[in-house]
Amino acid sequence: MPPRWSRIPDRKDADYRRLDDRMTFATHVPLFTAVNSGMWFFKILQKADWSWSVWVTGIWAAILLAHGIYVFAIADYSEPVATTPAPATGFKPREKSAKSSKG
Asked: What is the pTM assigned to this prediction?
């Protein structure tokens, strides 16, 4: 069951940012596991000479480790994040002209 948030989600909320970062990491781990296990399964099954597979796994594992260290040890959730306002989208309504239609 997915976690429920008791209030309106807001990136300025430290608890929400912490949960969001941990959920992102929790998505990163199974993605790494699925892709790498599939890659190694087919490498072994086909007896292929994929020397690049070691590099892919090693670099991705290092990135995953850095991601985990950041989320669980380095990230500071004590201060709110400054957000920039979203750019205006769509059309602006026409402004009424200053001229009077009566003359």
From this structure: 0.67
Distance CA 93, CA 91 (A): 6
Residues 31-42 have pLDDT tens digits of 999 999 999 999
The answer to whether 5 touches 51, Cβ cutoff 8 Å, is no
What type of residue sits at position 50? Answer: W
Structure tokens at 49: 């000479």
Q: Going by C-beta distance under 8 Å and a sequence separation of 6 or more, which residues neighbour residue 21?
A: 71, 75
Burial of 98: CB neighbours in 10 Å, binned 0-12, 13-18, 19+: exposed
